[in-house]
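Notes, p. 3: input format for complexes.
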Amino acid sequence: MTQYAIETPPVVTLPVAGEDTVFPVRRIYCIGRNYAAHAIEMGHDPDREDPFFFQKNPDNLNASGVFPYPPHTSDVHHEAEMLVALRSGGKNIPVDTALDHVFGYGLALDMTRRDLQGVAKKAGRPWEIGKAFEHSAPCGPVHLVSEVGHPDQGYLELKVNGEVRQQGDLNQMIWKVPEMISYLSEYFELAPGDVILSGTPSGVGPVSVGDTMELSIDGLGMLTVTVA
Ligand code: MN
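Output follows (228 residues plus manganese (II) ion):
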């Protein structure tokens, strides 16, 4: 039996809606600028260039319903996104079989220290300091494909303290879920437990301590997260 030299880190898991099992997470891939209106609000051309991705860490996922305001920032933004959880993976997955690899879908927030991301962008530095910090990916349970199908359209909304901040529809994604899986699998070996955050519509903005965020996507329920 393997003797670990230090205490072993816990396996990060997400609840599975309606099941006693949990979904173990291996990696998190996040796509940038996947809704035209959000690309425009961030000062970019929304034409269909190649997609780009960054990663969060599995243990940045946070299904507690509480988002602790992070240090070294005064401009933390919400980004409301659909989460895609993979049951299997591989290399060079064709678009037309990509959805076979999906285990389920859920709701997630790609919380972003926008001020630190802005400094990193300007300096040509990596984005982790703005994106991959503790508790930076509040999320809900994973809904099984057998329950919710493969949502390719559906109204997405984020409210802060009851006021609508972000609105969009899954059908506005520039890169669709099967295309994202196929593209990622050309550059990385996808595997069971991988998670994709599929991008955010326009209306991103700051939150403050005490705020309540409510994210909903048609067919995937609602996620309520308070900023502590
Ligand atoms: Mn995002």
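The domain at 13-227 is CATH 3.90.850.10 (Fumarylacetoacetate hydrolase; domain 2).
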